[in-house]
Amino acid sequence: MSTIVGLLYNQLRMNSERILLLPYKFLLFDLDHTLLDFDRAEDLALTFLLEEAGVASQEIQVYKDYYIPMNRAMWGRPQPWFAYKS
C-alpha cells in the first residue's frame, strides 16, 4: 500500500506545475451510489458477517430483511418499498 502512495506522491510532485494551473480549488467525489455501490457492499458485508457468525444460509435473508430497513430508517434514507407505520 505504501508503494502505491509513494508512486502517487511522486506523480503529483512531478506534475505539480500542471496541477497548479487547474482552475479548481477543490475536487469533490460523490461516493454513495455514484462511485461506490453501498447497497451491494452492505449486502456482501452482512452475508459474510452472518456466515462467520454461524447463521444458517436459509436464515440470512430473514436477518437482512430485518436489519436493512431498520438501518436505513436510522440513517434517514427514505425507502419507498418499506412502509413506515406510525
TrEMBL record:
Which GO terms label this protein's molecular function in UniProt?
Answer: hydrolase activity
Against Gene3D superfamilies, the record matches this protein to: HAD superfamily/HAD-like, Putative phosphatase, domain 2
InterPro entries, alphabetized: HAD-like_sf, HAD_sf, PGP-like_dom2
Determine if Nucleotide-binding is one of this entry's keywords: no
**Secretion signal, residue range per the UniProt entry:** none
Keywords from the named record: Hydrolase
Record-given protein name = HAD superfamily hydrolase
Give the organism the record lists: Streptococcus thermophilus
